[in-house]
Amino acid sequence: GGPKGDIITGKAKGTFHSPIYYYISAIVYSLSKSFLALHIFSIFIMLLTNIIFLFFLKQISKKIEKKYNFIIFSMILFVFLPVQLFTSLMIHPSIIFPPLLILSLLMYIKALNNPKFKGFIWLGIIMGTLTLSDLKGFIMPLALSIYAFFHLINKRYYKFRLLIISLIISAIIGSYTFIKNYLQFGSPLGFWKTSQGHIYTHEFSRLLNYFTAFLAGIYGGNEFIKPLLTIFILVLTLITVFSIIKNKFGIPKKVDILVLMSVITIVLAFFMTCNIEYLLTSFTCVGEIVHGRYLLIFDPTIAIFSSLVFIKFKNILSFLFILSIAILFSIDFLWAFL
Questions:
Q1: Which residue in 161, 105, 158 sits closest to 130, CA to CA?
Q2: Confidence class for position 200, pLDDT limits 50, 70, 90
Q3: With left for phi above 0 and alpha for psi between -120 and 50, is residue 11 left, alpha or beta?
Q4: 0.85 surpassed by pTM
Q5: Is residue 331 classed exposed, middle or buried when 0-12, 13-18 and 19+ CB atoms within 10 A define those classes?
Q6: How far is CA 136 from CA 98, 161, 207, in A?
Q7: What is the mean predicted confidence (pLDDT) over 259-283?
Q8: What's the rounded Cα separation, in Å, for the pair 107 and 129?
Q9: 120 pairs with which residues across the strands?
Q10: Are 220 and 334 in contact (CB under 8 A)?
């Protein structure tokens, strides 16, 4: 929106986005002079994301029954979830977020399995870079801050110190955008947290649009497959929620960080759409519009936890269900270009 947020509307306050994507995309565009090259770059980044996710799955599946089925099911779901497909063609800072998110999670798991200072230093560096890739990158340091607090009150001082090292390093690297937003707009997140930015009055039912924006057939809007797609989505959602509860929120498999980050995302998404200032003073839902990319953290959460249930069924039945939903998501996505 420009230094004063006046480029788009002339009135609304703006926000400074995390800078990494803009520097990289500027180099790509200056060399190619083509927007097509930026789309190809986005596709390449998402392919890289899928490769990193594969390594992440291998790391967490060592003690999982039918681990190869688990890896295959999780990969298919992760690749074909609607927001993942949509993001793969975006010219937007969000494209850098997924690979750094998965890489941060991978480094976190590795650091947990081998709790040494070196591992947590690398975690801090990558997590700080994650924050520089997208404003929503701060959710992972926030989640680890909660873990650090619980380690402190439970007198696990060694783990507390390791996490604090990671958090300090990530703060040094990733705080630039938040400081700049605060100095310019009075809020670390720009208009996101203020009542003077890109705000709209909503019905409370608008909150349900997050579900639609993330999963439902809204990109292509093919009416023929929409009823079937809706059924598959509801089943997938219920399976994911059931699996999170059944698997004790991922604690035994050390993926509880995904659940915590997803919960934080839901809470922040609520207050983003329903600004707390207006909610408390007038019981009015006022805030930012809904974008599915705000919920990218749900992709690995859904893929992993639903697959933990699918591996309990006959392989052919689970594979057919997952393949069917992948095909439906693909058709809906491609329909948008017709």
A1: 105
A2: low
A3: alpha
A4: yes
A5: middle
A6: 11, 25, 19
A7: 82
A8: 13
A9: none
A10: yes
